[in-house]
Amino acid sequence: MNEKPNIAVLSGGNSSEFFISLKSADTVAAHIDKEKYNVFVVQIKGNEWTLMNDLNCGLIINKNDFSFSDNGQKETFDLVVPVIHGTPGENGLLQAYFEMLAIPYIGSGVLASALTFNKYYCNTFLRNSKIVNIAESVLIRDKQPYNSAEIISKLGLPCFVKPSAGGSSFGVSKVKSVNEFDKAIEIALKESDEVIIESFIKGAEIQCGIFKTNEKVFVLPLVEIVSKNEFFDYQAKYDPNFAEEIIPARISNELTLKCQNITSQLYDALNCKGIVRMDFILKDDEFWFLEVNTVPGMTNESLVPQMIRKAGLTIKEVMNSLIFDKIGK
């Protein structure tokens, strides 16, 4: 009898979203079929890569070949599932590492991960594709002088100041006056050495989840976000008292299909793989692109799991599909 494949679910990372990743990874690991696969959670924090399963908790991962030793027996992995939000799991670094080791992994590859992780460069790339509307933006790098008045003259107020290379939960500010601008830049620079300033597009926030296998395209029901804060910030995302997450979104079937079609086109244009969530603003029946999440939140309360359940699927079914698509087992 063939042994069950070993699957590593990666958690943690080196960004402010470390603890969110731990919860997401635990959810993903819990929904991988244990009758088919041996599932290991690997926590990454800087240079400390350790197993977190009860039976082998604390065992060290050998980074030379991504293996570990248990009672003198070497164990390797047949597949990796990165569930790390931010660096190094969402920006292409781990993907490059596993490519060099020839270990298959679920999710977007090196280029797609690196491109979508950097909001400014992703916007620049997509602006040329003409698939979706893109807000005007300006890039500022750390230590680079900038002129607040010129930027605000170009983009208007309010505007959004965000870490360009980073997630969407930390370091984001909605700037309403020139007096708030420098502080917003300072906050964003704590998360990334590049900052993107974007024009404000007033409308409904709509999010769409998608994944594709060799056999089928799964475009999930849309979510409409109604934040009680200025925008869908960290508090609104993780405290149900500060936002409504409405599934399906309260828009027409025509607009729903339009958003799902745009999402599918963007997924292909960026060469995304695995589960991806794309965020938009809907204004005057037109969709404006916000960002791509190639490693979206996967806690039970997160948006993508909610979309999956609304589609009549389970996380276990989705993970089985993605795993089988990758290793054929």
TL;DR?
The protein is of the alpha+beta class. The chain is 31% helix and 26% strand. Strands 7, 12, 13, 14, 15, 16 and 17 form a 7-stranded mixed sheet that branches. A 4-stranded mixed sheet has the order 3-2-1-6, covered by helices on one side.
Could you characterize what this model shows?
- The chain is α+β, with helices and mostly antiparallel strands.
- It has 3 domains: 6-107, 3-Layer(aba) Sandwich (Rossmann fold), CATH 3.40.50; 114-133 and 202-294, ATP-grasp fold, B domain (D-amino Acid Aminotransferase, Chain A, domain 1, 2-Layer Sandwich), CATH 3.30.470; 136-199, Dna Ligase, domain 1, CATH 3.30.1490.
- It is 31% helix and 26% strand.
- The strands form 4 sheets. Strands 7, 12, 13, 14, 15, 16 and 17 form a 7-stranded mixed sheet that branches. The chain has a 4-stranded mixed sheet with strand order 3-2-1-6, with helices on one face.
